[in-house]
Amino acid sequence: MRLGHHLTIQNGHLHIGGHDCISLARQYGTPLYVTSEDRVCEQFLSYRKALSARYPKVQVLFAAKANGNLAVMRALARLGAGADIFSSGELTLALAAGMAPEKLLFNGSSKTPADLKLAVEKGVKVSVDSLDELHQLDAAARAAGTTAKIAFRVNPALEVPTHPKIATGLATSKFGIPHREIPAAYREALACSNILSVGIHCHIGSQILDVEPFARAAEVMVRIAKEITETGVNLEFIDLGGGLGIPYHHDTDPAPTPEDYAAKVVPVFKAGVEACGITPELWVEPGRSLTADSTVLLTRVNSTKAAHKRFANVDAGFNLLIRPAMYDAYHEVIVANKADRPLTTEYTVTGPICESGDILAPDRKLPQLEAGDIIAVLDAGAYGFAMSSQYNSRPRCPEVLVRGPDAALMRRGETVGDLTSTMEQPPWQR
Ligand code: LLP
Fold first, then answer.
1. What Å distances lie between residue 121 and 4, 101, 134, 147, 408, CA to CA?
2. Ligand 1 atom 8: the closest Cα is on which residue?
3. How far apart are the CA of 287 and the centre of ligand 1, in A?
4. pLDDT (tens digit per residue) in 384-418
5. Which pLDDT tens digit goes with each residue over 274-326?
6. Is 202 a catalytic residue?
7. SS3 state of residue 63
8. Catalytic site residue from 21, 192, 354, 397
């Protein structure tokens, strides 16, 4: 199986960033998320390099929803990353990680009054999703005695080749304002005393393995940029969103790189803004393509069973990685302590959750398994831990970060005490 260069096989063991996954599993226990900081940084830098080689003003924002660990966000902040944030929680984490407020864009179609207030107080930019929200934000900024800098979220009405649950720019999607209504929205914003329109934003979907749709989105965005520039808006940035996919099937999926993305998209963007006579910053907000392949989820085989199929029952399920259950997503698996053995036997790798759909990896050819083996689920660094839950009252597992020769916890494992710590006893039960 093709592996990123941060994943290697030495003496039959899978290593991540030079660290033996089996030693890590022994030291920290399983299940365990392990992330290579160097890999995350490498992906970020490759985006910035590919874009800045073609356009002078570039900002790479990390889509914080993909991986909300502070240590990951801090590593990116140190390289100058901003963030696409989708909640007050993500906003607070991004600032705590050291990201500059002016590089944060608060997105979302359903912001609370408290979200708007926090955005205004912290001076982050807001991607406004409706005219109703525009007026609420104007009032919040007025109340705080300040001006809110905004972009409108454009719904470009683009079909994209991905799972329907993660296509966000369809005409029928809940996100954004229909592209034809966007110029009127900017006119309305001009009439708001505490709003300053400085940008324009879209995001067409996630796990898109073809760069062509991003070029089409860029075309729509520069066309709108021209219209709104003519109405007097001074565009400081155009944000094309995230969405570049990764090859979850390592040997067969296309593997578009930031370089492929930039080569396709930047010329369209550049020609478009030149035609408007403006030089706004080009913003992108990748999530998955920055962090997914940096991380493995290590899970121990509790038992094997030959029934209707051969099952490998492991200690991580959709409580820790919901993507297979939720989107029928495919993740490669490697038996981390038998990584050089022949793939002789077909197993379905199932989790410990009380649902038949708790399957991490169906019908995979693996070496002969026994209890105690450690399976590494690959590409788990985006929408992995971030979407985890405590279902079946299972405390969430720890996360370890490795960098060069060092390895350290970046999140301790929860305990059963953590499960009950937020629960209250109603007075009549006392
Ligand atoms: N910007 C906005 C406004 C977004 O909504 C998203 C993702 C991104 C950027 C980052 O997209 P990325 O580069 O990661 O594709 N849980 C799903 C993915 C949901 C994506 C939601 N929005 C999954 O596990 O596949």
1. 42, 10, 16, 10, 34
2. 242
3. 6
4. 999 999 999 999 999 999 999 999 999 999 999 99
5. 999 999 999 999 999 999 999 999 999 999 999 999 999 999 999 999 999 99
6. no
7. strand
8. 354
